[in-house]
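Shipment paperwork, digital attachment
Item: protein structure file
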Amino acid sequence: MSGGAVEGTQCSLALYRRAEGEKVDQFFRKNWSFDTPGFSRGGSLPADNYEWPFDYILPGHFPESIEGLDDSWIVYRMKATLDRGVLAQDKVIRKHVRVIRTMDSTALELSHEMRIDRTWHDKIDYTLSTPSKGVILGTTIDANFRITPLLKGLKIGQVTTSLVETQDLWMDPKYPERKKGTVKRQVAKDKFDFPQDQETELVDGSDAWVFSRRITLPKSLRQCLQTVDTLGFRTKHNLNIIVHLLNPDGHVSKLSASLPLQIYISPVLLMNDDNTISTNHLGAVDPGAFAVGAPPQYGEHRSDVLYSELDPAGYVTPAGARSGFSTPCDSRSRRGSADNLANLASASPPASFTPVALSSRLNNLDNATSSENTSVYPPNIYSSNNPSAALPRQGSDEEADDCDPQHFEYSPERMNKVPSYSTALQSQYQTPINEVPPTYESSSH
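Attachment content:
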């Protein structure tokens, strides 16, 4: 700012509403007055850059901006004034602020599909659906069809899918009976001539025609508003579907259905000042930004590492245990592993640990466990008669010694010593399941 006399600085945020044919109403206004340190009112400011920060949290019940109509709107405007005194012209700056009410990725409207399942007696059994109720303005709507013919010789003719917008306007939101009027308009449409040579598909044991249609929504608020109901403005959207059925006797039947949808503005697709979505913003958006919070498919992983690619050098194993392909024989293991995974690593070329291979080996291990019908700590698990003892295992002789069964003797002195909680957790002592602790009388002698 160039130097000069300044009387004061002010800023304001205001909410305006206007219905068609009515005057502009101001529903809210917030003013700020700023003082500059070391500056007296009516003095002069040297040439420099000056900042007066301010903030305000809009209440949750405030309406969102409604723009795109010619004579009706709800807008937020900011105004900053630099008062330069009586004989000088004030500096005024105005800025348009857009307030949107969007949806969270976990909203039910984005996770529940809209679906109609009906049966036209002795004619068709049909299912019409969309992936979700909530749709972002400027994107597309997928309409899914599944039509099962119940009448022999029935064919599908033209299929029409359209998005219809209904606008209701009140002169004064305080008086619902003073309704201004209702306007309906078609914002998007798709016509499709169903091919007569398309064969049916087997779905749930019945032959059905299965197909989908995609409708592109406008990228301008002048062509399509968001779904809203506030301050005398109410906008609803319905996906209307018409399917012409060609009967064997020559006459045409018409199937009509309607699915309610909710159009909303996403902060991912930015609006320009002319109430249109920039094509640059639309092209730069990652398709994953429209996800509804569901995890990605396994084949679409980005940075996760496969099990066969892990380097075990950086992992810390428990004290006293050796890391390898065999199951450790400490208190955390129910039984020794009967699977020889060492051969997988030593094979040439090395075999990959695919999910199918690991799942198959786990199933074999479960089958072996259930067939043996052994207890948690079988007494003969390490005997020479046990089949798993003869399997080759990776490791040295010392590792095999660690897997020998341990025997414990109870004494009154040891029974009277109660260890601390941390010591008990680190202890490797365990009670064999085939032994019972001594009675109170025997331990007191």
